[in-house]
Specification:
- The protein has a single domain, classed as Ribokinase (UDP-N-acetylmuramoyl-L-alanine:D-glutamate ligase), CATH 3.40.1190.20.
- The chain is built from 9 helices and 7 strands, in the order H-H-E-H-E-H-E-H-H-E-E-E-H-H-H-E.
Length: 257
């Protein structure tokens, strides 16, 4: 259930990594879809009160059978409507993972006065140590996984915490890079259900290493040529995994925090 701006991109990313996407914002379909054994992304990018109602219906359907659900509170600190939307969604059910930039995760955590001009994070208010503390304490409070994306990503389940420094600058120059990261993580969490933090870390690394590989290609001249190359590289990593070739993981820049 992603925003209208990136539905096509998200569907193509899902296909590239071997998932089977359906882009439905109709909460009445959620019971049937949840029974298929997949994961749900609830993305607030183009939210309205009607869409929120559908999000809550879908959340309840996936919670009922234990299907993995990701919350992407896009632009959570930008408006009062979005701040209220975050509260309503979090009160309406359980999210296995909440992902966002610094401004969004600070809003989720309950910080006051977060300023966002659209979907950007806004000026960073925290150093890395404080970001790690915020992510870890929020994950412990919510009994789930919290991912704060940035130049250095921070992810925690409240006990295990990691920083990841992969990625490419072009991810910040295109629409939907954060949204489709959610698509990737949800797809892997649908398969790896025993250790959801492991699934999330695998998704981040696959996504960001593919971005690095795409950004280094000679045919990539900027953000416009980056997107198709990025989808290609996600597909190539998928194919390498099918062959049992895990060498792509040698590029991982991950540290325990």
């Amino acid at each position: 259930m992603t925003n209208l701006v990136v539905q096509n991109f998200a569907a193509n990313v899902a296909l590239a990594i071997g998932a089977s996407p359906i882009m439905s914002n109709n909460g009445l379909e959620a019971g049937d879809l949840a029974a298929l054994g997949g994961g749900l992304v609830v993305n607030m990018g183009t939210t309205t009160s009607e869409i929120r109602s559908n999000h809550l219906k879908a959340l309840a359907a996936y919670n009922a059978i234990g299907g993995p659900v990701i919350l992407d509170p896009v632009g959570a600190g930008a408006t009062q409507q979005r701040r209220e939307g975050v509260k309503a969604l979090m009160a309406g059910g359980y999210f296995d993972l909440i992902k966002g930039n610094e401004g969004e995760i600070r809003t989720v955590a309950g910080a006051q006065g977060v300023k966002q001009h659209g979907v950007d994070s806004g000026a960073s208010q925290l150093d890395l140590k404080d970001r790690i503390t915020l992510v870890k304490t929020t994950a412990a409070r919510e009994s789930n996984i919290v991912l704060m994306s940035g130049v250095v990503d921070v992810i925690s389940d409240g006990e295990r915490t990691f920083t990841i420094s992969n990625g490419h600058k072009y991810l910040g120059e295109i629409t939907g890079s954060g949204c489709t990261l959610g698509t990737t993580i949800a797809s892997i969490m649908a398969v790896e259900r025993e250790d959801k933090l492991l699934a999330a870390v695998a998704g981040i690394l696959m996504y960001e290493i593919a971005a690095e590989r795409a950004g280094e290609r000679e045919d990539v001249k900027g953000p416009g040529t980056f997107v198709p190359a990025f989808i290609d590289e996600l597909y190539h990593i998928r194919e390498e995994c099918v062959r049992g070739d895990g060498k792509w993981m040698e590029a991982a820049k991950i540290e325990s925090a």
